[in-house]
UniProtKB/TrEMBL annotation:
One of its GO terms (biological process) is negative regulation of DNA-templated transcription. Residues 70-240 form the IclR-ED domain. This is DNA-binding IclR family transcriptional regulator. Keywords: DNA-binding, Transcription, Transcription regulation.
Length: 242
């Protein structure tokens, strides 16, 4: 299969995203092909070319691909401008300590959110739905719903494509925080609040996840209030970063 120009760039980017999303456990060539829509032979050639340039590594024994050293170097440079994760981790630790739930920090990347950081809570039962590197479409998890609800209407419109999602977006705007009542995995709930960048755009979100019994009734509102407080504080800290 021949690829040229912008199509090639898009396919390579899709391959790198899939490798990055499976950074901890690695991904197989078949998984990359499935996620990107490429024939397996094409995915193999793209991965091999990226490996030659140092953008991915392959564990030959396990047959799995991992992010390579060049991605680390590029990420380190980009972090100087974009990374607010170190600042967010302090907020996540506070949320996890105060609530006992697992706390997460996610960023918007186009029509998706990617989880950048997590701090596990002390409560022994956890949902294990989110993890660092996981990408989800906007509006699916509580973090993505919180961001989607605060996008300008014309920007949000392409992603709000069902009557049910329209209702969830409206409810999020009324409350100020998003609620995911077990829509990804039954029994696993999430609450999210948006974090704004210096221009006032909804760029990130804080969220808490846990089992349903910990999120029903008045406690959902309590967790939402804590998240809003933390999100406002993080937004102010980002705005005043040098």
């Amino acid at each position: 299969m021949s690829m040229q120009g912008s199509q090639l760039v898009a396919r390579v980017a899709a391959v790198l995203r899939r490798v990055g999303s499976g950074a901890a456990q690695g991904v197989t060539t078949a998984e990359v092909a499935s996620a990107t829509g490429l024939p397996r032979s094409t995915a193999q050639r793209v991965l091999a070319a990226l490996a030659e340039e140092g953008f991915v590594d392959r564990d030959a024994r396990r047959g799995r691909w991992y992010p390579g050293p060049e991605l680390f170097l590029l990420g380190s440079v980009a972090a100087e401008r974009y990374d607010v994760t170190s600042t967010a981790r302090e907020v996540l630790r506070s949320l996890a300590e105060r609530t006992g739930e697992s706390a997460f920090f996610s960023a918007r990347r186009g029509g998706e959110t990617v989880c950048l950081a997590e701090v596990e809570g002390s409560f022994p039962l956890r949902s294990h739905v989110l993890y660092e590197g996981l990408r989800l479409p906007l509006g699916v998890a509580s973090a993505g719903l919180a961001i989607l609800a605060y996008l300008p209407l014309e920007e949000a419109a392409p992603y709000v494509d069902t009557p049910e999602l329209t209702k969830r977006v409206a409810a999020t705007r009324r409350r100020g925080y998003a609620v995911n009542p077990g829509l990804i995995v039954p029994g696993s709930w999430g609450v999210g609040a948006v974090v704004f960048d210096r221009t006032g755009a909804p760029a990130w979100a804080l969220s808490l996840t846990g089992v349903e019994s910990r999120f029903n009734g008045d406690r959902t509102a309590q967790l939402g209030a804590l998240l809003l407080e933390a999100a406002h504080a993080l937004t102010r800290r980002i705005a005043h970063r040098p």
